Amino acid sequence: MSLDSLKARVPDHAKDLKLNLGSVIGNSDLLAQQLWGTVLATAIAARSTVVLRELAPEAKANLSPEAYTAAKAAAAVMSMNNVFYRTRHLLSDHEYGTLRAGLRMNVIGNPGVDKVDFELWSFAVSAINGCGMCLDSHEQVLRKAGLERDVIQEAFKIASVVQAVAVTLEAEAVLADVE
């Protein structure tokens, strides 16, 4: 199970995704922990068994046990936060924004890895889940920490390609049964 194996599964009509997958992971300027944590967190957020099975072992081989756990934690907490804050933002009644969230998210304050890395993973998961409030919040923290826009963009490039591969492979599995 590996990046090469995942690329081999991408159908010919999605050749651009195969090329982009190799590029965003194989040629990334992110530090190794940032890269593989982003890959793992977005693979989880993309909700594709195939993508996760292919990328998780490689992520695990490239991350410390603490970073591997933290990337999973980023995907978990952001799956909750993205729904909550996106909903709050989309509601016409802005009074919801004044109410206490009351949701535990202690891992954000103490993720067990460099906070910048955890923020980057949270940002990437928020890109997949489409939460503008969370994207803005995490992007501001990353910029305050000194990350440049091109580094932050690397995270959402990875998110977009991982998500697109997940959607494509899941669709191919269903279409194989239908056709």
Topology:
Blueprint: H1 3-9, H2 15-26, H3 32-45, H4 49-62, H5 65-90, H6 106-109, H7 115-129, H8 132-144, H9 149-178
Helix pairs in contact: 1-2, 2-9, 3-4, 3-5, 3-7, 3-9, 5-7, 7-8, 7-9
Mean pLDDT: 95
Task: Identify the CATH architecture.
Answer: Up-down Bundle
N-to-C CA distance: 27 Å
Helix run count: 9
**Main sheet: strands, sense, barrel:** none
Judged by helices, strands and strand pairing, the structural class is: mainly alpha
CATH fold name: AhpD-like
> What percentage of amino acids are in beta strands?
under 5%
Rg for CA atoms? 17 Å
Order of helices and strands: HHHHHHHHH
Query: What's the CATH superfamily, by name?
Result: AhpD-like
Q: So what's the CATH class?
A: Mainly Alpha
What low-confidence regions span 5 or more consecutive residues with pLDDT below 50? Answer: none
Keywords: Antioxidant, Disulfide bond, Oxidoreductase, Peroxidase, Redox-active center
EC number: 1.11.1.28
GO molecular function: disulfide oxidoreductase activity; hydroperoxide reductase activity; peroxiredoxin activity
Subunit structure: Homotrimer.
In short:
This protein is mostly helical and 179 residues long. The protein is built from 9 helices and no strands.
Describe the structure.
The chain is mainly α. Helices cover 75% and strands 0% of the residues. The chain is globular. Keywords: Antioxidant, Disulfide bond, Oxidoreductase, Peroxidase, Redox-active center. Antioxidant protein with alkyl hydroperoxidase activity. Required for the reduction of the AhpC active site cysteine residues and for the regeneration of the AhpC enzyme activity. The active site is at 131 (proton donor), 134 (cysteine sulfenic acid (-soh) intermediate).
